[in-house]
Specification:
- This protein is an alpha/beta fold.
- It has 22 helices and 21 strands.
- The strands form four sheets. Strands 11-10-9-12-13-14-15 form a seven-stranded mixed beta sheet, sandwiched between helices.
- Strand 2, helix 2 and strand 3 form a beta-alpha-beta unit.
- Helix 15 runs parallel beside helix 17.
- The radius of gyration is 24 Å and the shape is globular.
- It starts with 12 loop residues before the first strand and ends with a helix.
């Protein structure tokens, strides 16, 4: 095969070459997915375009992995095959759409002639309709690109990748088998895709900035509250500059965990309504002005809609609008507004913030108890974490428990608080660890429950195959604890068959690339955290952490009670 990555650019180029070169230009280095007969010929182009094929165990896991990869890398690519493949991935793509994660989903389709004639092909519904599956993806894709006519293919590809980046959501690209080798203009590859945000109307932007500053200077107890869309829509630089310049007490919502440098003097903790630390809750809810950046006020993100903050005291910054109290300013992006607020802010009144540490709760200090409880575990985990770690937590006890840690600087947190598909974190760990390896091998740490692990455990095999070395902590507490707290405490449907989790990577061929541990006491876990070899992550490691069946973080209990009440 011709080395496309190093040779002089020729005119014209094959469609698959154009597509994969564009992905490489925006930062993708590894492609997730599963091979299928409608995408095989396209996959032949990957190596010469500087892209590595990851090779997942199934399409659902591949979608989760692409999600995790995108959250660390900035954007991801997923390749599936028509019908059976894309539908297996659709849950993961829906989750990425829900949580604003940019994935370019490429679907290998039957050739255009077969589609036009309505041939009775495999992987179809047998009704001659080749649009059914694309239509199913339409509501969970920022844009759809059907690559049929050569005169528009380059434009469709460029537009889809731009929309994926700008809107931070999945896009769908349909690639028929007979289009893969068609020739299109290659010259435009020399011009990078414009990924810059559309500029705000300057007059309107200046007006909004003045309104924001008016209320900010009048406030006596202003605070900053940062959430997930600040991460997804790439305004963290503005957020950090705002915190530094203003000195305001700064908090994060659960989905915004990791958005702010938690070692900063202004950081005050996680605000989640009644699920918050009492000091955090008091300072946020007594504020007379909340600068809310990128909020997603879902039930789990607010501990059961338990926020006690009023819109009259809130300025909301979003990717497509700014709302000042009850006045909304549409078609204006928060990035430009925040930058000008920082530039024009001057001196404002900043109150001190309560110091948040990883200190154990009072009842746990000096205790001789050896049972590992959530109240003890999560502050202890916070003490163990290192700068620039990537921490993935599964929907359930881990997702809520991580609120009780204070991260070192540079830690990236990954969770799926809004979509909440159990098993997500294992696939996401594979993608995140792969992106981390490409960036310099940051430590990747996963906390997952024994029940959730059983849904997507095959991706441990993909981790081994790709030489990835995450630390996987499996919370062994006999099943679906979060579901028990919502409904069916002793119901058999919340039970699982207990596995020898520590032995699973051996079955997947871990060999000398793997080491497993089982901890049942606090001293055993503390000894492991102090182990230098363990912390240097020389190979994939899995730790069984055995905990009581009926124990859970306080925030989970509060949120589960609210969910149970709504379900009655």
């Amino acid at each position: 095969m011709v080395d496309i990555a190093t040779r002089e650019l020729r005119q014209p180029v094959d469609v698959a070459e154009y597509l994969f070169r564009r992905l490489h230009q925006v930062g993708v280095r590894s492609v997730h997915g599963v091979p299928g007969d409608y995408n095989l010929a396209a996959l032949d182009y990957l190596p010469a375009c500087g892209l590595k094929w990851t090779g997942n165990c199934n399409e659902l896991n591949a979608g989760y992995a692409a999600d995790g990869y995108a959250r660390v890398n900035g954007i991801a690519a997923l390749v599936t095959t028509f019908g059976v493949g894309e539908l297996s991935a659709i849950n993961a793509i829906a989750g990425a759409y829900s949580e604003f994660v940019p994935i370019v989903h490429i679907v290998g389709q039957p050739d255009t002639k077969s589609q036009k004639s309505g041939m009775l092909l495999h992987h179809t519904l047998g009704n001659g309709d080749f649009n059914s599956f694309a239509n199913m993806n339409k509501d969970i894709s920022a844009t759809m690109a059907q690559l049929n006519e050569t005169y528009e293919i380059a434009t469709l590809i460029d537009n889809a990748i731009r929309e994926c980046w700008i809107r931070s959501r999945p896009v769908y690209i349909a690639l028929p088998t007979d289009v893969i080798t068609k020739k299109i203009e290659g010259e435009r590859l020399k011009t990078p895709i414009d990924l810059s945000l559309p500029a705000n109307d300057e007059e309107k932007e200046d007006y909004v900035v003045d309104v924001v500053l008016k209320y900010l200077h009048a406030a006596e107890r202003p605070v900053i509250l940062v959430d997930a869309c600040a991460i997804r829509h790439r305004v963290l630089e503005e957020v950090h500059d705002l915190v530094e310049a203003s000195g305001l007490p700064t908090f994060v919502a659960p989905m915004g965990k990791g958005a702010v440098n938690e070692a900063h003097r202004c950081y005050g903790g996680v605000y989640a309504g009644t699920g918050s630390n009492p000091g955090v809750r008091e300072q946020v809810e007594s504020s007379d002005l909340i600068l809310s950046i990128g909020a997603i006020k879902s039930d789990f993100n607010t501990a059961g809609f338990s926020y006690r903050t009023g819109q009259l005291n809130t300025i909301d910054f979003h990717s497509t609008y700014v709302r000042v109290r009850y006045s909304e300013y549409p078609d204006i992006n928060m990035k430009g507004v925040l930058r000008k607020v920082i530039q024009k802010m001057g001196t404002i009144k900043a109150n001190p913030v309560q110091h948040i540490s990883n200190q154990l709760p009072e009842q746990e200090q000096g205790s001789s108890e050896q049972k590992i409880t959530h109240a003890w575990l999560w502050p202890t985990v916070g003490q163990w974490l290192q700068e620039n770690d990537i921490v993935i937590t599964e929907t359930g006890t881990a997702n809520f428990g991580i609120w009780d840690t204070r991260f070192p600087a540079g830690v990236t947190a990954i969770s799926q608080v809004l979509w909440g598909s159990i098993g997500y974190s294992v696939g996401a760990c594979q993608g995140a660890a792969l992106a981390a390896k490409e960036q310099g091998n940051r430590r990747t740490i996963l906390w997952v429950g024994d029940g959730s692990l059983q849904l997507t455990v095959q991706e441990i095999s993909t981790m081994i195959r790709n030489g990835l070395n995450p630390i996987i902590f499996v919370i062994c507490n006999e099943g679906y604890t979060i579901e028990r707290f919502i409904h069916g405490w002793n119901a058999t449907y919340n039970d699982i068959q207990e596995w020898d989790n520590k032995g699973i990577p051996v079955v997947f061929g871990g060999g000398d690339k793997y080491k497993g541990y089982k901890v049942t006491t606090r001293d055993e876990l503390k000894d492991l955290f102090a182990n230098q070899e363990f912390n240097s992550v020389p190979y994939l490691q899995l730790v069984e952490v055995h905990m009581p069946r009926d124990d859970a973080p306080a925030a989970l209990r509060i949120t589960a009670e609210a969910a149970a009440t709504r379900n009655k």
